[in-house]
């Protein structure tokens, strides 16, 4: 399996609840190398663009409100099979359905406020990473 990259955000709920350190520890302990990272806050326009694929969904407004209400940690992670392995590490979208030990099982409170984002394909990982980081910020 080739080494590749995925994109993640520690979402506002997990930041508010003081879980940045514990989540980064889980990520690095699972073998992911951090190749870019920043503490930032999405504007409404950023969130609408980032989640544009969901714009017809009934929860879109709620999602944009949530993702913009406070700071996030954005990062690009590198590992063999990064996209799939990171989705396994974070668990199902709904924390009630997430496997034991996954980041969402441990730190998420609801299907909307679910602590972390993980790209769902290599193509989206590249698009999402480029959305947040300039080339000189990626190591
Ligand atoms: P994932 O983040 O697991 O890839 P999706 O791409 O389906 O999940 O959804 C993107 C984000 O939208 C979710 O992580 C969650 O924050 C939010 N979301 C998804 N489904 C719902 C829902 N039914 N109600 C509220 N928010 C939702």
TrEMBL record:
Instruction: Enumerate the cofactors the protein uses.
Output: Mg(2+)
User: What keywords were assigned to this record?
Assistant: ATP-binding, Cytoplasm, Kinase, Magnesium, Metal-binding, Nucleotide metabolism, Nucleotide-binding, Phosphoprotein, Transferase
Xref: PROSITE patterns: NDPK (PS00469), NDPK_LIKE (PS51374)
The record's listing under PANTHER family reads: NUCLEOSIDE DIPHOSPHATE KINASE, NUCLEOSIDE DIPHOSPHATE KINASE DDB_G0292928-RELATED
Q: State the superkingdom.
A: Bacteria
Can you tell me which family this protein belongs to?
Belongs to the NDK family.
State what this protein does. Answer: Major role in the synthesis of nucleoside triphosphates other than ATP. The ATP gamma phosphate is transferred to the NDP beta phosphate via a ping-pong mechanism, using a phosphorylated active-site intermediate.
Q: What is this protein called?
A: Nucleoside diphosphate kinase
Per UniProt, subcellular location reads as: Cytoplasm
- Reactions mediated catalytically: a ribonucleoside 5'-diphosphate + ATP = a ribonucleoside 5'-triphosphate + ADP; a 2'-deoxyribonucleoside 5'-diphosphate + ATP = a 2'-deoxyribonucleoside 5'-triphosphate + ADP
Catalytic class of the enzyme? transferase
Alphabetical GO biological process terms: CTP biosynthetic process; GTP biosynthetic process; UTP biosynthetic process
What's the source species' lineage? Bacteria, Pseudomonadati, Bacteroidota, Flavobacteriia, Flavobacteriales
Residues that hold ATP according to the record: 11, 59, 87, 93, 104, 114
| Assembly information from the UniProt record | Homotetramer.
For this protein, what is the EC number?
2.7.4.6
Q: Name one GO molecular function term.
A: nucleoside diphosphate kinase activity
GO cellular component terms listed in the entry, alphabetical order: cytoplasm
Q: Where is the active site?
A: 117 (pros-phosphohistidine intermediate)
Nucleoside diphosphate kinase-like domain segment(s): 3-139
Q: Which source organism?
A: Abyssalbus ytuae
